[in-house]
């Protein structure tokens, strides 16, 4: 790997393109050649994972709204598929609808380092463009692997959260790069597309703060749509704000560390395999990733705690990120509000710990149901739970050794008689270093569980067979990556939505 220093340069420096981060990211994309076997297998896992959570969210309102907006732009040829319909739409609109479906349940893959990310958000726009342009399964895999490589590098090297910039700013760059690899575009074209994508997808973190709305699901879909449009414009010979990262009025200077910025981004050198996707991990539970280990820890503590009415307090000692983003350190009263939105509750570790402690399980719908959140005994327990930052957990969160990196915490339960019950868990059970790491059978099991009642057993088998042979799929066979569902039921749900402009 090669370490690149990224800092602000005045316009008078005329920083050569080859020295700009956007060019270096583009070169990683266009230099992605022969596919690493392990990376390709993991990419198939993530295609399965995305389909799992997409079909489980088809009858949720934000997904239906995105689908309605997309299908209003239906096209005859060639276009791309939308989950839940037989309609083909332009690729940017397919990316919008499918990206929202994948993100809605907060239930697909993650990578945490200096910043946060859901690299699986790259897949919907890549799949849409691959369908629209008649690419093969191997082309799609190349795009996915390149996008993950760029995304992980940016998340490791450049923290956005510190400056309250939403993490999809890294997603736009990664998707544009992945599209360049998919389409085998020149480095110059990909460089321009990356710059436009970064420039247009930088937004504040208010989408994940306080009263969290459905935009949390739409935000990555917007980034994917914008990246497709950026690539289209760059292919037509148009340029973009440059240098988008290093410019004196650019991304680093005014959004991040300012004129004194000095970020270090590690990128593979020429000929190095693209293996960053192997550093990422998916979710067993439908909640913010930093709550995954907390759910498993609560399930483990349930029997030890006994009758929960006896609990006086629960303190979860955890990392800075967990405390300040989904814990009581966020200072968001909404995180303790029984009437809060689902999007808010899945970013409230006190709520999540309370329900997991009571139920001993977690469900993507039942655990967030309004009647579940308003249960009096749950509210009473929930408001006894707080988080505190522990420097040791913060250090482990950022440990450069993935075998020592931790995203969990140490729970201390104090009962009304003064008895203290405590336990700790470093990583979720499904994490690569956890008790039950996800392998292909884990992804298949997750798909079958979430597809039950929506996708027939035969259609499930057909989808899984297609995904397993993604690397060999010829042009035109990518439709098999969309599990067949009852489109009439979906259409009836969509018909009940309010009308918009389209």
From TrEMBL:
InterPro entries: MmgE/PrpD_sf, MmgE/PrpD_sf_1, MmgE/PrpD_sf_2, MmgE_PrpD, MmgE_PrpD_C, MmgE_PrpD_N. Pfam families: MmgE_PrpD_C, MmgE_PrpD_N. Belongs to the PrpD family. Residues 32-260 form the MmgE/PrpD N-terminal domain. This is MmgE/PrpD family protein. Residues 285-470 form the MmgE/PrpD C-terminal domain. It comes from the Bacteria. It comes from Streptomyces doudnae.
């Amino acid at each position: 790997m090669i370490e690149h220093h990224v800092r602000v340069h005045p316009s008078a420096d005329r920083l050569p393109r080859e020295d700009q981060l956007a060019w270096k990211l583009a070169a990683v994309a266009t230099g992605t050649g022969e596919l690493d076997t392990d990376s390709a297998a993991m990419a198939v896992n993530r295609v399965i994972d995305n389909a799992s959570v997409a079909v489980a969210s088809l009858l949720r309102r934000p997904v239906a709204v995105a689908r309605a907006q997309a299908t209003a732009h239906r096209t005859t040829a060639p276009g791309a598929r939308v989950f839940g319909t037989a309609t083909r739409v332009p690729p940017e609109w397919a990316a919008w609808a499918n990206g929202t479906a994948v993100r809605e349940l907060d239930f697909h893959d993650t990578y945490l380092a200096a910043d946060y990310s859901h690299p699986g958000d790259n897949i919907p726009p890549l799949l849409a463009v691959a369908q629209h342009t008649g690419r093969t399964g191997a082309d799609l895999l190349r795009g996915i692997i390149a996008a993950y490589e760029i995304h992980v590098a940016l998340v490791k090297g450049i923290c956005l959260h510190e400056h309250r910039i939403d993490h999809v700013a890294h997603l736009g760059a990664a998707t544009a790069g992945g599209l360049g690899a998919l389409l085998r575009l020149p480095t110059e074209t990909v460089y321009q597309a990356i710059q436009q994508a970064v420039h247009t997808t930088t937004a504040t973190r208010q989408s994940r703060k306080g009263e969290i709305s459905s935009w949390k699901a739409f935000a990555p879909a917007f980034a994917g749509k914008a990246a497709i449009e950026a690539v289209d414009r760059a292919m037509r010979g148009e340029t973009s704000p440059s240098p988008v990262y290093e410019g004196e009025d650019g991304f680093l200077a005014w959004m991040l560390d300012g004129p004194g910025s000095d970020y270090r981004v590690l990128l593979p050198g020429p000929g190095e395999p693209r293996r960053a996707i192997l550093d990422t991990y998916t979710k067993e539970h439908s909640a913010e990733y930093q709550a995954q280990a907390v759910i498993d820890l609560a399930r483990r503590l349930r029997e030890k705690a006994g009758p929960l009415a006896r609990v006086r307090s629960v303190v979860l000692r955890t990392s800075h990120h967990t405390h300040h983003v989904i814990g009581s350190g966020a200072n968001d009263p909404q995180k303790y509000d029984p009437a809060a939105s689902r999007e808010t509750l899945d970013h409230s570790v006190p709520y999540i710990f309370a329900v997991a402690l009571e139920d001993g399980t977690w469900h993507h719908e039942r655990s967030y149901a309004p009647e579940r959140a308003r249960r009096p005994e749950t509210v009473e327990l929930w408001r006894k739970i707080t988080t505190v930052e522990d420097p040791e957990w913060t250090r482990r969160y950022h440990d450069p050794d993935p075998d020592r990196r931790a995203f969990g915490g140490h729970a201390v339960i104090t009962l009304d008689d003064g008895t203290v019950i405590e336990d700790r868990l470093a990583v979720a059970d499904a994490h690569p270093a956890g008790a039950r790491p996800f392998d292909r059978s884990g992804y298949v099991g997750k798909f079958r569980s979430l597809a039950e009642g929506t996708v027939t057993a035969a259609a499930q088998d057909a989808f899984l067979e297609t995904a397993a042979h993604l690397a060999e799929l010829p042009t035109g066979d990518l439709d098999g990556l969309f599990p067949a569902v009852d489109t009439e039921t979906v259409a009836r749900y969509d018909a009940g939505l309010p009308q918009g402009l389209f």
